[in-house]
Structures are given as C-alpha cells and as structure tokens.
From TrEMBL:
PANTHER family in UniProt: 3-5 EXONUCLEASE, EXONUCLEASE 3'-5' DOMAIN-CONTAINING PROTEIN 2
Protein name: 3'-5' exonuclease domain-containing protein
Organism in which the protein naturally occurs: Coccomyxa viridis
SMART domains associated with the record: 35EXOc
Domain (3'-5' exonuclease) ranges: 43-221
UniProt entry keywords in alphabetical sequence: Hydrolase, Nuclease
Length: 231
C-alpha cells in the first residue's frame, strides 16, 4: 500500500499550487462521491451529520488492519483569549480517508464518538498532546482517554530514534516528502467549502501518520522493540 500515499504526497508537493490542476483534481469521483487521489486512495468529505454513519462504514470496509490515522484542523486562533473549535476531523485507513466537517454539525455525532471509542481500532495521532488534545476537549468534551486504543507516533518514533522529530522528517524517513504549505495549514478550515488543496492536505496528514506507524510496526516485527504495536 505504500505506493498509494507516496504518489498522493508527490501530487500535493508538485501540483497543488496550480489552480487549473486543483480544479481538475476535483473531477474524478467514484459512485459514492469520493474524491480519488493518485494511486486509488479515496477521500470522502462529510458535511452533514446524517451522512457520518455511512462514511464511517465505508472507512471500516476499507481497513486492511486495525490502524486508523487521526488528525484535527481548525481555523487559526488569531484573537488573544479566543480559541476556535475544531472544524475538521480526519480519519484514514491505508486506502481511504474520511474528512468530517464538524464545524457544520452540532457537536460530535454519537456514531463518531462510538467509532473513536471502539477498542478494536488503533487510533494513531501525531504530537497529539501539543494542541489536538486541548482542542478535542474544548470542542467535544472528549480526549485520548475516551479512545478505545490510542498511539502517538511521534512518541513511538522518539523511543526508537532517541529524538523527537516532526511529521515532515518522519515522512521522508518513510519514503516521501510531505510538504506543509503555509497557505493551506493556516487557511480557513471553516470555509463554506474546502478547497482541493485543503482536501489533499487534510487526507494526507491522517494517511501519512498511519503509514509511519505501520513502518515502525514492521521494525517491531523484526524483533527489536518491546512495545506492543497492533496489527
């Protein structure tokens, strides 16, 4: 599956600044309405609470292992003393990402809360305690203690390498340069519609997080690490 996220990340790195290509990127869809990234990686953008359950079912059906990458996005906090709520939750298997626009919903849909708390799923975040945990608590009243199983791949990487690395560095170690263009990372995630660049970036953030975890799981399978990493 590695070729899928490598090809998709290269697409983002090389083409997302070209408006014409961004617009053409939005054209290929499958029967469910999913955007198809290079390599066949599917992305479902969900803005209605009534569609969340079906999207999560599609995500479950796409799972080839227990691992689901998770990430959050929000509008940049620009006023002192005011924090924006989470606008987008990204969940990704190795073949599919679901981007849930929580800014369009009244709180956390119950089916999403149940998915996050499912003990059969290994949720994998990156640097979660840096900001995501506080945002999740403030926005939804939940955090990592409510997840069925949770792993922070940045902490796992630090235990393996002895150093704390960023997502870009670890993605290069795993075989691909993952750019974080400022115009996308600091964009308005509560905008009426997400841009193609936002969709690609958001999907890849969760996808790459899960794939880096899988790389470390392979290292563990070689018999050198004590930590138990789920399959």
């Amino acid at each position: 599956m590695a070729h899928q996220w490598v090809e998709a990340a290269d697409y983002l790195a090389n083409r997302c600044t070209n408006t014409d290509i961004e617009q053409s990127f939005m054209q290929p869809r499958d029967s469910s309405g999913a955007v198809i990234l290079p390599g066949g990686f599917r992305v479902l953008v969900v803005a209605r609470e009534c569609d969340v359950a079906d999207a999560l079912t599609a995500l479950r059906d796409s799972m080839t292992d227990r691992v689901i990458g998770i990430d959050l996005e929000w509008r940049p906090d620009q006023r002192r003393g005011f924090q924006n709520r989470v606008a987008l939750m990204q969940l990704a298997s190795s073949t599919c990402a679901v981007l849930i626009r929580t800014c369009c919903m009244d709180g956390l849909p119950p089916c999403l809360g149940a998915f996050l708390g499912d003990a059969s799923i290994a949720l994998v975040g990156f640097g979660w305690d840096t900001a995501d945990e506080d945002k999740a608590q403030a926005s939804f009243g939940i955090g990592r203690q409510d997840f069925g199983h949770f792993f922070d791949v940045q902490m796992i990487a630090a235990s393996v390498t002895g150093q704390k690395h960023g997502l870009q560095h670890l993605s290069r170690m795993a075989g691909c340069r993952l750019p974080k263009p400022h115009r996308v990372t600091m964009s308005d995630w509560q905008h009426q519609t997400l841009s193609p660049a936002q969709i690609v970036y958001a999907a890849l953030d969760a996808l790459v997080t899960g794939q880096i975890f899988r790389c470390f799981r392979l290292l563990h399978a070689d018999g050198n690490k004590e930590a138990s990493l789920p399959g």
